[in-house]
Amino acid sequence: MNSLAVIRANDSSKLRTTLHDLVKYGHMSYANVPKRLEPSFADSILVNVMKSPLKSGCTVAAVVPLMDSASAAISRLRKIHPPAHVIIVSPRHKIYHELIGCIEMLPEAFPRKHPIQKKQAIPLYGLNILPSVTA
Q1: Is the dihedral of CA 100, 101, 106, 108 positive or negative?
Q2: Cα 117 to Cα 70, 102, 113, 121, 129, distances in angstroms
């Protein structure tokens, strides 16, 4: 893990689209699954990293560890235009070490659904046959 991407968005669909765009168009690799952040904490990260006052707050936020270096992630991010605000946090930022310390405790941004249950065999005249779908 070389850097972190903090994503601030107005709604969860923009957050999801931005996470997808970072991989598909930005060619970035995730070191772990995206984790949910409190919007106020993401706003404070922006103020800390950018050293500028906050213009408007976000309603949803996530953080994802990247396999890419911070400089490579920033240059790739400039080439795409995701629908949400993305902040690349490198190890030179003070907040980076705080985020690394708590990232494992954060919940997933989009929890996975339960795995699909496999069809169970139905005993048919003593044979175990999977049910077939007829049209």
Answers
A1: positive
A2: 41, 33, 11, 12, 17
For 77, phi then psi, to 5°, come to: -65, -35
The residue with greater pLDDT, 123 or 36, is 36
Q: What is the pLDDT of residue 131?
A: 58
| Phi then psi dihedrals of residue 97, to 5 deg | -70, -30
Q: Confidence band (pLDDT; 50, 70, 90) for 11?
A: very high
d(CA 82, CA 77): 8
The full length of the chain comes to: 135
- Quickly name the fold that domain 3-105 has: Alpha-Beta Plaits (3.30.70)
